[in-house]
Automatic annotation (TrEMBL):
The keyword Ribosomal protein does not apply. Gene3D superfamilies: Intergrase catalytic core. This is Integrase. It holds the Pfam family Phage_integrase. PANTHER family: PHAGE INTEGRASE-RELATED, PROPHAGE INTEGRASE INTD-RELATED. Keywords: DNA integration, DNA recombination. The keyword Aminoacyl-tRNA synthetase does not apply. Residues 180-372 form the Tyr recombinase domain. It comes from Mesorhizobium escarrei. InterPro entries: DNA_brk_join_enz, Integrase-like_cat_sf, Integrase_catalytic, Tyrosine_recombinase_XerCD.
């Protein structure tokens, strides 16, 4: 009778007692069991195990996909993933992030003391315990990366369960594993004091002030701010719900995020008075992007992150207040203006209400706090007044 073989270096190996000695076997799903000579560590055992994992003692069939991989391994799953319509539907940034994480996983050794990596390991040999050990190892140093790694591995397991049917969905080892990440404290909303400090240091007409105004009053991502053109600014007559007509200026453009998936979310954002004042002195005659550097050229998306760091430093603002933080400031501002959650979602181009609800909850939390303070102060004021009246009666 075969017995479980608890050695992470040899997935698929089992042992049995035969004539008083342990005999070792290797078996992959749907394949006959193969005898492995000797014991783990012996040269003949290692050679036989390597051949078994690469094709049951025969020459391995090479899957003709980009990057070529052994069949039904995680390397095979990674190559197959890149050909699925779901993967091709992701935007470039999402593809690159997941590809980096997947490559990191594929290069991990199944056991630190053995050269076999997960790239060349059949998917069926990853169980929940091994997966948990991988994720917990990353979790100790970076919770966020651990969460993203789990998501990336889940994509490979999705190929194995739903696309290629190598394993049954109920055998997916990731089903029982969850990674919870605390709410990020990065890119906080700018308090009024920080905004006033920035505005005082960078006057209207400068690139710094233009970038700040676009980031705050449009509430969009750095890629959209860098790419925004004067041709996106139009004047349009709008009929309001009460039947009245109003003539407004608005930026009409498509967000860069998810352009590969559905063309990008179409945005129509009216220009408020303060944004109009910030744009007024700029030269529109040459067209091109609204935001330009000192040489009249467009900023790259990545350069805006560094430039905002430089501009905030000039204004004496502590590090951590970023361009994306201005987007959060806009969402918070709308919630504090008591704008409905659905309208905030549309204004910021969110694909779901999850993030939008955070802004509304935060604004409501502040309102509740103010109401509590007001109620306490009123109650104590009444109590003090009653004491004063009682003292007056006693004096009389």
């Amino acid at each position: 009778m075969a017995r479980p073989f608890k050695d992470a270096r040899y997935p698929g190996v089992s042992s049995r007692l035969k004539n008083g000695k342990l005999a070792y076997r290797y078996r992959a799903k749907g394949m006959p069991e193969l005898r492995l000579p000797g014991k783990p560590g012996d040269p003949e055992f290692e050679a036989a195990y390597e051949k078994a994992t690469q094709g049951q003692g025969k020459k391995a069939v090479i899957i003709d996909l980009p990057g070529r991989a052994l069949p039904k391994t995680f390397g095979h799953a990674a190559r197959r993933l890149e050909t699925t319509m779901e993967w091709l539907d992701f935007d470039e940034a999402t593809q690159q992030k997941n590809a980096r994480l997947i490559e990191r996983f594929l290069n991990l050794r199944v056991d630190p003391n053995y050269p076999l990596t997960w790239r060349d390991t059949p998917v069926e040999h990853l169980d929940a315990d091994r997966l948990r050990a991988i994720i917990e190892g990353i979790f100790r140093t970076n919770r966020t990366v651990a969460k993203h790694m789990l998501v990336a591995i889940k994509k490979l397991l999705w190929v194995a369960t739903d696309v290629e049917k190598w394993i049954k969905p109920q055998d997916d080892p990731s089903l029982s594993i969850r990674v919870r990440v605390p709410k990020s404290t990065k890119n906080p909303a700018w308090p009024i004091a920080m905004r006033e400090r920035f505005e005082e240091r960078h006057p209207i007409g400068t690139a710094a002030r233009t970038c700040y105004a676009l980031g705050f009053w449009l509430g969009n991502r750095r890629g959209d701010i860098a790419a925004l053109e004067w041709d996106d600014l139009l004047t349009e007559e709008i009929e309001l719900f009460d039947g009245s007509l109003v003539l407004i200026e608005a930026f009409d453009f498509r967000q860069k995020k998810n352009r590969n998936r559905h063309g990008g979310r179409e945005m129509f954002i009216p220009v408020v008075d303060k944004l109009a004042a910030a744009l007024d002195p700029l030269d529109r005659s040459k067209g091109g992007t609204v935001l330009k550097n000192a040489y009249g050229r467009s900023f790259s998306e990545k350069s805006l992150t560094g430039m905002m760091q430089h501009w905030t430093r000039q204004a004496g603002i502590p590090s951590g207040y970023t361009l994306h933080g201005l987007r959060r400031t806009f969402g918070t501002y709308l919630a504090e203006c008591n704008i409905q959650a659905r309208a905030i979602m549309e204004a910021m181009g969110h694909s779901s209400m999850t993030v939008t609800d955070e802004y509304v909850r935060e604004a409501n939390k502040k309102r509740i706090a103010v109401d509590i303070v007001r109620a306490i102060n009123e109650r104590e004021a009444k109590r003090d007044a009653m004491k004063r009246r009682a003292n007056l009666r006693i004096v009389k």
